[in-house]
Each structure stands twice: as C-alpha cells, then as structure tokens.
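batch_manifest entry 22 of 60
target: SDR family oxidoreductase
source organism: Fictibacillus marinisediminis
requested by: lab member K.T.
priority: normal
notes from requester: please return tokens only, no post-processing; we will run our own comparison against the previous entry in this batch. if the run fails, retry once and flag.
--- input ---
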Amino acid sequence: MKVFLVGANGQIGRKLVELLGSSSEHSVRAMIRNPEQANELEKLGAQTVVANLEGSVSELAEAVKESDAIIFSAGSGGSTGSDKTLLVDLDGAAKMVEAAEQAGVDRFVIVSALQAHNRENWNEKLRPYYAAKHYADKILESSSLNYTIVRPGGLLNEPGTGKVEASKNLGRASIPREDVAQTVLAALTEEHTFKRSFDLISGDHSIPDALKNL
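--- output ---
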C-alpha cells in the first residue's frame, strides 16, 4: 500500500515513517513543509513531498495523487496559539479530507485525541485543541472516505509494550507514542476499524486482538 503521511516530522509521525519505511507491505511518502527535513526522513525509508496544510486543496490533492491511503498525524504543537490549532488541526485536516476525495484516495486514518467526541470530557485547559479535533473528526465521518479515527490518551515517550485497550469510550489514561504508531499501522488494513472511531490507551490486549474486538 502506498501511504501518504501528513505530520511526518512529529513524534508519532517519525515512528510511523520508521515502521512504514521498513515494511514489506507498505511504502511511505512523507509530506514536509521544509525541504531541509527531507534528508533525515529519506534515511528512514520515506520518499518526501513538499506541501503545506495552509496551502490550497488543489495543491494537496496534487501531492496525494497515486496514493492508496492517507495517515493524518499532524498537529500544531503545544507551543503555538489557538490560531495555528485552528489552521492545522481543524482546517488542515478538513483540507486533506477534501484533497483525498478529489484525488480518489479512499482510505484515511486520522490521529485524534482521547474523548474528543465527548465535549463533557474535554480538558478545560485544552478546549480549543479538543474542539479542533472534534470537528475535524466529524468532517471526516461525514465524508465519502473509508475512515478510521484513532483517539489516543496522554502520549508518552517511553518504549511501547504492544499491549493496548481500544474502545468507543475509555477513561483518561496514557499510552506510549510507539504503541499509537503501531496501532495506526495495524488499522490501515484491519477491516474491523473501517468506518469506526475509538479511544486508545495502554492495556492488556495485543494490538491485533484489540482492533479485532472493536
């Protein structure tokens, strides 16, 4: 599968580049804003394409053409303001959905946030971020695409365990970024995740079993 990765320079994105770049089943094209980022990602096995989520839908559609799937793991980051959260996490995701439809790329996996679908459980200090994720997810759900929405809990940089819990509603908990990346990769071709959204935290089930039990 030819996978187009948005957010390749982020922490989850880097792990996805490594996984996809070393896969015998998939290849990866990593979207970057700055050409100077290309060399490091190409060393991990990715092809790179320069494009910007704040650009036009037609430009993004041109970038994703000939791909089989899109993984959207982009985020504005904790050091930016609510304006960038709106432009990247919400409008950027919405543009990529439109671009996928224009380019005929049917499979779309997005990394959201735990309980983004449930306003009553949003972190008060991060409400703009959760609102952006909430409406980006809704736009994807209402599209024509074969989507999967992965909503991970608090993200950790410790090594992954390969053990997760995946369900429609889970309480607040954490998960290593490595396990999120592994789950996103597994979801690409797991039919139990098609047209579904789920929370994801560390747990007791192997990733394949957790996804098959959704």
